Amino acid sequence: MISKNSTAGTTGTHGTTGGGDRTGGSTARLRTARRRTAVAAGLALALGLGVTAQASAGSPRSVSGKPSDNITRIADFYGAYIDAVNDEGGGKLADELRKHYLTPAFQKELAAWEDENHANGVLRAQNVPLAWKVTDNGTADHTEAVVTLTWGSSGTTKLVVDMTRTTHKIFHIGTTGAQGK
């Protein structure tokens, strides 16, 4: 694609004109640079350098759940609630999550607990945990889960959360299950 123009000199593919200096060479240098880049990328893949970089970043994670599964619902509630409490301006969302996931009677019970203990009743603490985990604790007439809250250097707290099987609403949060109240 390089053409000779008798009056203007050499014109390269990028429209550079001049008196025969470097323009034809500039196109050749561009092609050479592209080849070097392609060869380097090919060598990196062949030597496994790309795979090493991905492995050090960690393998892809996945999270799944079903709206009909109460353990999923409890995990969804705690994940969203902790995010809302932790995020600036998330107070309204935290309140809405309580209204959606907790029975009305338990919302009143929780408010009384919070007034008495000066702490967040869902988390049973004044701070926000760094991580959480939900484990099925198994019961016959309702769902009981153990929620483990991780606080960093100060350890963990285990809460027992009970949810109805019919309405999928949380009716108890405490250090023991609803049956051990």
Notes on the protein architecture:
With 181 residues, the chain is an alpha+beta fold. The protein folds into 2 domains: 3-57; 70-180, Nuclear Transport Factor 2, Chain: A, CATH 3.10.450.50. Helix content is 41%, strand content 19%. It is built from 5 helices and 6 strands. The chain has helices at 23-46, 49-57, 70-86, 91-101, 104-117, and strands at residues 3-5, 9-11, 131-136, 142-150, 156-164, 170-174. The strands form 2 sheets. The protein has a 4-stranded antiparallel beta sheet with strand order 3-4-5-6. The chain has a two-stranded antiparallel sheet with strand order 1-2. Strand 4 (142-150) and strand 5 (156-164) form a beta hairpin. Helix 3 packs antiparallel against helix 4 (91-101). The radius of gyration is 31 Å and the shape is elongated.
Order of helices and strands: EEHHHHHEEEE
How far the N terminus sits from the C terminus, by CA atoms, comes to 85 Å
Please compute the radius of gyration using only Cα atoms: 31 Å
| Most strands sheet | 4 strands, antiparallel
Silhouette: elongated
- Enter the CATH topology name of the largest domain: Nuclear Transport Factor 2, Chain: A
Low-confidence stretches: 1-23
- Total strands: the figure is 6
How many domains, in number, for the residues? Answer: 2
Name the average pLDDT.
Answer: 80
Helix content percent band: 40-55%
User: Total helix count?
Assistant: 5
Give the spatial strand order of the biggest sheet.
Answer: 3-4-5-6
- The proportion of strand residues reads 15-25%
Q: Name the CATH architecture of the largest domain.
A: Roll
